[in-house]
Amino acid sequence: MKQTPEYLSYTLNELRNVQEQLNAHLDSCALCPRNCSVNRRKEELGFCKAGQVVKLGNYMVHKGEEPPISGDLGSGTVFFAHCTLRCCYCQNFQFSQLHKGTDYSIEDLAQVYLWLQDQGCHNLNWVSPTQFLPQAFSALLIAREKGLRIPLIWNTSGWESPKIISLSKYFCDIFLMDVRYSKDKTGFEFSKAIEYQKFNRKCVEIAHEIQPENIFENGLLKKGIIIRLLVLPELENECIENLLWIKSSFGSNTLISLMSQYFPAWEALKNPPLNRKITKEEFDKVSSKLTSLGFDKGWIQDL
After folding, report:
1. Which pTM value belongs to this model?
2. How far apart are CA 279 and CA 285, in angstroms?
3. Residues 6+ apart with CB under 8 A from 66
């Protein structure tokens, strides 16, 4: 049975109500846990520096995501500029931290979605869209009316407002969700995240309520959750603590993507121990624990 994307499962009246709720944040922004409350319509800027007009760092046909996301034809990836976090090692720092990119009207953003579908992409992949969710969602409604039919992925840092992530049941088919730190102190030190563990774990719980099972069609993930664990230098024990929590909370059938791709970017060179790549011993410690806990349905990236 073909799975219907979430934004096609609800009436336009229901989706318009969601649109109104999201647009209200342009007047007093609380899209992320910082609750900056700035009026973006009046060009007031909060922590992320995002304004009223959506800005993209890039969009592309991405063939380097997890196998059931990229498939043979690629994932239609949209990189939103700005960010609600400030990871000192961000690999996309040019547009997430330095705020470079191109402004798009909501109508033009809808055309980006449709263009990616026309390229044959298996899905639409929003990368770090939180600061622009009102505009991204409005563009989704326009694209839906013009024939957008591919599943939607929320590629998230995992540090989100519970109220906002709860709204994603109206549009998100697949969560690509980071679980990065197990300690609040580490999350603040390296990403300026407030109460990282509380917000991150609550977001994962809500995501599991929205998408309680992983559904595949012809090897492609159509609905579900992939949790990404990026191994960081000297933080392998936090990675293992998160694995233990995931196992006890959701079981070993959870799709885990264990990532070895860390390298020191942006300000990481000034922030030991993040000023170096991970070692084989650090990565093997986490991958061995992953295997011993019975997580055998996900992916382990080559080191």
Report:
1. 0.97
2. 10
3. 176, 221, 226, 257, 299
